[in-house]
Write a structure and sequence with these properties.
Layout: H1 3-18, H2 25-34, H3 39-63, H4 69-88, H5 93-113, H6 128-145, H7 150-159, H8 165-187, H9 197-220, H10 224-244
Length: about 250
């Protein structure tokens, strides 16, 4: 697959994912794997693209006063070291793709069936212990696989009625940003030589464009249920492709 074609797909993925507070790392991983890129470059590229997309989203959510620091802090305080330790663990390429495929299929189910709630649902009180456990568990697995973890965190927060839909999207953006930064820090100790920085830069520019558009759509007018289920279909298709691809 040519790099410019990958860039167009990445732009579209970033637009869709950013509209619900995600970075798109899971689908970037799947697409890069299908394109046959080197194993280590796949994880690094996905995390860098995650950071680019959600950084803009976090800023926009902050401007619109959708960030609840008291409730977000326990999530990220435990997830950051957990994600770092997950990232420094060395796993085989076969194990990586198996974990990735299973995680994508699981995430698609969680996204599809998460409960639909009205936007005006009252805030729930902070529960730091539960949030810390959730953040740590999801953060470790995210660092291991090379994603931000928002596709797992968001459905769980909706299940617990953690906050309104937009504030959950905002929290997921912060969570993804923190985990992606920690994941890259963990990967720096064993990055391979000869990375294609030209391609990485092109894909980064593509997701910046798509992510900015998606974040702004999410703060103006969008149908959260439709976007979540569209995202679930994309994630499911990516998971199936990973699990069925035997040419590794």
């Amino acid at each position: 697959m040519q790099d410019w074609v990958l860039a167009l797909f990445f732009m579209a993925i970033a637009l869709i994912y950013a509209s619900v507070g995600f970075g798109g790392g899971s689908s970037y991983l799947a697409l890069l794997a299908v394109a046959g890129l080197p194993f280590q470059e796949i994880r690094l590229t996905a995390l860098l693209c995650n950071i680019i997309v959600v950084s803009g989203g976090v800023f926009i959510f902050f401007q619109n006063k959708q960030l609840n620091a008291r409730k977000i802090l326990p999530l990220v305080a435990v997830s950051i070291p957990a994600s770092f330790f997950g990232a420094i663990m060395r796993i085989s390429e076969e194990t990586f793709f198996l974990l990735l495929g299973v995680s994508l299929l699981t995430a698609s189910v969680l996204l599809w069936f998460q409960p639909r709630r009205p936007e005006e649902t009252p805030d729930s009180a902070p529960q730091p212990v539960r949030s810390g456990l959730l953040g740590g568990g999801i953060g470790f697995f995210s660092g291991l696989v090379g994603i931000g973890g928002g596709i797992f965190l968001s459905p769980v927060l909706h299940f617990f009625r953690w906050d309104t839909a937009r504030k959950i999207a905002a929290a997921a953006s912060v969570f993804i940003l923190a985990n992606s930064l920690a994941g890259i820090a963990g990967q720096l100790s064993h990055l391979p030589p000869g990375l294609n920085w030209g391609r990485i830069t092109l894909l980064g520019a593509a997701v910046f464009t798509g992510g900015q558009a998606g974040s702004r759509i999410s703060m103006t007018h969008f149908n959260p249920l439709f976007i979540r289920r569209l995202t679930a279909v994309l994630v499911f298709a990516a998971g199936v492709e990973i699990m069925m691809n035997d040419e590794r």
